[in-house]
């Protein structure tokens, strides 16, 4: 980590439909898996994944900033939740 | 009366709305570009159908950050009439002017067809000249029209008579067989609590000109006209 200059970090953000929201895409994918013989698959949920690279002062800031980005833009709180991983350099 | 029609990159029903309001309804109409920072003195704002910003991220999600939307929200909060059609409805839910979300159609297919809708609330500025329970033929053309809201939200919509249109058949039956996209309670259009903001998936501007064969959509624009000019 470079304490004197920019602190560029990468995060992977997953935005998923809430459990109570029907995911027809996931259902269709599951049906295909069943026709291929994967009868052990009981659920498929499709979701979105974002890779974000950003420059932050410290690790407390990065969490706050990612959550702000998710709340304002990446996720629709009516139907979606999110979680994220911040990667080491 | 004067309409303002908001244009985003990817709007594609803007001219249909312009033609109907100007040529058929005789209103003054001005286009407003999404980067503008003020409206042009409207009585009613139309957010037209289309694919604003290519539907990137979620339908309507990027459009809500366009500079003009601050003005539209301000106009709505002061009681101004706002109607969002199709993608315009999606924009209104993303901006939180209307509750709920339009999810992808249950069939995963883009649906483009004539559709019957029932007027379940005729006490709104947008429907007050239409008899209650009248069935209108207003076409739909969307990929994300599957209205979703949580249980409390749905109850609130019902308690406050905010459901304006429901999908039905020609006889007015509202059930799963007459639901084209999986919308909760066959919801095709809702308004806000105050009753000045309407979102609807069907396209009234596509069945207004007699050349379309059906003119049921005119009822919406005539309602708005009489409401403003009364």
Radius of gyration of chain A: 17 Å
Shape designation of chain B: globular
Give the low-pLDDT segments of chain B: none
Distance from first to last alpha carbon of chain B: 11 Å
Strand order of the biggest β-sheet of chain A: 2-1-3
Strand order of the largest sheet of chain B: 2-1-3-4-13-12-11-7-8
Q: Largest protein interface?
A: A-B, 11 and 19 residues
Estimate nothing, just give the exact number of structural domains of chain A.
1
Q: Portion of residues in helices of chain B?
A: 10-25%
- Beta-strand portion of chain A reads 25-35%
Short description:
The complex is a heterodimer of chains A (89) and B (230). With 89 residues, chain A is of the alpha+beta class.
Tell me about this structure.
The complex is a heterodimer of chains A (89) and B (230). Chain A is of the alpha+beta class. Chain A is 31% helix and 30% strand. Chain A has one domain (8-87): Mth169, Chain: A (2-Layer Sandwich). In chain A, strands 2-1-3 form a three-stranded antiparallel sheet, with helices on one face. Chain A is elongated and about 50 Å long. The N and C termini of chain A lie close together (7 Å). Helices cover 22% and strands 24% of the residues of chain B. Chain B contains five helices and 13 strands. Chain A binds chain B through residues 20-22, 24-25, 28, 73-74, 76, 78-79, and chain B through 57-58, 61, 65, 93-94, 99-101, 103-108, 148-150, 182.
């Amino acid at each position: 980590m470079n304490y004197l200059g920019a602190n560029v970090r990468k995060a992977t953000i997953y935005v998923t439909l809430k459990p109570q929201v029907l995911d027809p895409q996931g259902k269709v994918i599951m049906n295909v898996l069943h026709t291929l013989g994967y009868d052990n698959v009981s659920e498929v949920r499709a979701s979105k994944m974002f890779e974000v690279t950003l420059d932050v002062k410290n690790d407390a800031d990065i969490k706050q900033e990612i959550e702000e980005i998710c709340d304002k833009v990446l996720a629709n709180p009516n139907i979606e939740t999110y979680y994220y991983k911040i990667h080491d350099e | 009366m004067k309409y303002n029609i908001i244009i985003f990159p990817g709007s594609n029903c803007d001219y249909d709305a312009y033609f109907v309001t100007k040529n058929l309804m005789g209103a003054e109409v001005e286009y407003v570009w999404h980067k503008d920072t003020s409206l042009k003195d409207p009585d009613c704002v139309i957010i037209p159908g289309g694919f604003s910003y290519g539907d990137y991220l979620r339908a309507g999600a990027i459009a809500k950050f366009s500079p003009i939307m601050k003005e539209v929200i301000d106009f709505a909060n002061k009681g101004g009439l706002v109607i969002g059609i199709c993608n315009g409805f999606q924009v209104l839910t993303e901006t939180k002017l209307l509750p709920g979300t339009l999810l992808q159609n249950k069939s995963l297919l883009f649906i483009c067809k004539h559709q019957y809708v029932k007027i379940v609330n005729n006490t709104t500025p947008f429907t007050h000249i239409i008899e209650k329970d009248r069935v209108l033929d207003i076409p739909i053309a969307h990929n994300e029209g599957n209205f979703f809201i949580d249980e409390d939200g749905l109850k609130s919509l019902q308690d406050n008579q905010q459901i304006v249109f429901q999908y039905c058949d020609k006889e007015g039956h509202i059930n799963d067989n007459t639901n084209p996209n999986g919308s909760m309670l066959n919801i095709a259009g809702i308004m806000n609590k105050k009753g000045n903001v309407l979102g609807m998936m069907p396209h009234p501007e596509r069945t207004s000109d007699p050349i379309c064969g059906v003119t049921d959509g005119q009822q919406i624009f005539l309602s708005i006209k009489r409401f403003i000019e009364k």
